[in-house]
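YM 10:42: 7-carboxy-7-deazaguanine synthase sequence, as discussed on the call
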Amino acid sequence: MPVASDVEESATDTDAAGEGLPINEVFYSLQGEGTLAGIPSVFVRTSGCNLRCWFCDSYHTSWEPTGAWRDVNSILEEVQSHEQANHVVLTGGEPLIHEQSVELLERLAAEGYHTTVETNGTIYRDAPIDLTSISPKLASSTPTPDRDPKGDGEWEEKHEENRIDMDALSLMVDAYETQLKFVVTDESDLLEITDLVERVRAATATTVADDDVLLMPEGMTREQLDGTRSEVAELAMEYGYRYTPRLHVDLWNDAPGT
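YM 10:58: structure's back
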């Protein structure tokens, strides 16, 4: 299992390291994915990631990370400015590469917020988290040269080596309420998904039910989802897993801040 501090140093490519967290954006919207889809939530999106999925829907937190370093107090103040929200989603990038994410989660918990952490499941941290939304990265996510958005494939080997960490993943499943959310590109992903689910079940004391396993169609625009959602919904019914929409894409297409 990677040492979180080492991952943080190597994966945060924002212009200059500072105090607090590198924040790409903070915004108020509806949770678009998973078991809490439709819940009004404040999203805190950190910048920096230890993986590079070719289809990443937050390109400027991974492939070309951007953002400003902000202290936890200022982030909390912005969250609190959305008075109608009591759910906060910490997302990225990969938010758990940053040690200060723990302090932010502690502060949010102290203020009574329900917190969801959206993570790739490769880094475990001990923090007050109400729901871990773990999206393990499948082989189909690897940025091979023909799919690399930057065209050179330099992340292919590193991504493939690090995309699954069973130690961190198992710790997370046993420690927190969890949903396993898989981005599905086509039917060929299901063999790896069913194998990984069985490995998680064998490695944990927690019961991982089929409806804790979510299948989500790959696609960042309505047009792309039009080509994948029906197939993925059929696969969910065939395998007994849960289908999850990308509600924010259905509602707002690929508009920023949604």
